[in-house]
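Reopening this one. Same input as before:
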Amino acid sequence: MAHPSMNSLGQNDHAKRLLSAGLGIALFLLSFENFCFGQEPDGFPRLESPNELDRFILHGMKEAKVSGLAAVAVKKDEVVWSGYYGWANREQKIPVTKETLFQVASVSKPVTACAVMQLVEQGKLSLNADVNEVLPFPVRNPKHPKVPITLIHLLTHTSGIRDNWNLLEKTWVKNGDFAKPLGVSLAAYLQPKGEYYSAKKTFYQWTPGTKSQYSNVGVALAAYLAEVKAKAPFETICQKGIFEPLGMKGSSFRLEGMDQTKIAMPYGFKKKTGKFKPLGHHGYLDFPSGTLRVTAPHLARFLLSFIGDGQLEGTRLLKTETVRQMRKVPFPKADSKQGLVWYYDKMGGVKTMGHDGGDPGVSTFMQYRLKDGVGYIILQNGEPKSGKFEQALGQRLMKFAEVN
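Same output, byte for byte:
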């Protein structure tokens, strides 16, 4: 889920942050040079024989006020580097390891899109069909009652469905899952007589397919379409179609049944006190848009499958033509960078594709270069404000993967 006060409002905000972050990267690197020969920052689990990259990351975490971090660099079909730093849980003194699960916020969306596209491949869903052909309740923008909303609209943020943040934040659940089934909560949100409906804040005024505005609820509705046609809960669809085939044991969108001691605690940082504050694990109405908990190595396997045109180590999640379709931009006039959930960006002047995410106490990045399959994942249980540390780290991981 892309929270408006966090670091992921979708690709447009992401691009703006890249520009502003770029201005600060040089200063960050200069400040790092003064740290390389000093001591390891106080408060972090001490590393044995930290190298230059380790010190760079620890310094960046200290400056950005991040409790814990897991990062992975990939190239084509393999992980070429991984690193784990800081605290998953400061109060219990649990360090981040390769086994640590992180909530990945809107980096959940590519996984959701994969599950949905598996149903498209099976012929159970159509990208261009009216969603009302599948849904047990009608969905129409009251300003455009004759214009159908389609699955491709939902996956490209062009549906016109609006995130009513007052309502979404009000209904968040701390340390638990949203109680109502996905279909029930979405019907309550999207139908005029629904409990969560707002005449002014449920839909934008523009015609579906003509503009782009990031929509967490829209992606959640795509997940519910998959539920309806698969006749199974969305969590089950992902477990059977993605997590089990790729060996992503322990990954889940739902807290129920998970060992929460293995999940990195989201933290905020209070400047007045100079201390980290645990924020708890959240569940919310549109959970397919942001509540995936997964380890960095397991998320790397998912990224590698997408880089590999839908397959990894002989396991195929999607057909090659499906992945290539997901990389296309269906509505260039609305957004020239938006594929099916995945979106385009640039790093060092080179085209990349990926997604980022942010929720309270959570900041995540997943990105790769199309030309050579070099990419990275950064998962943090904190809220760095400027983005310059993550961008500098992403560049370093890309360069490392180039030569290894």
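So the earlier flakiness isn't reproducible anymore. For the record, The longest helix spans residues 11-33.
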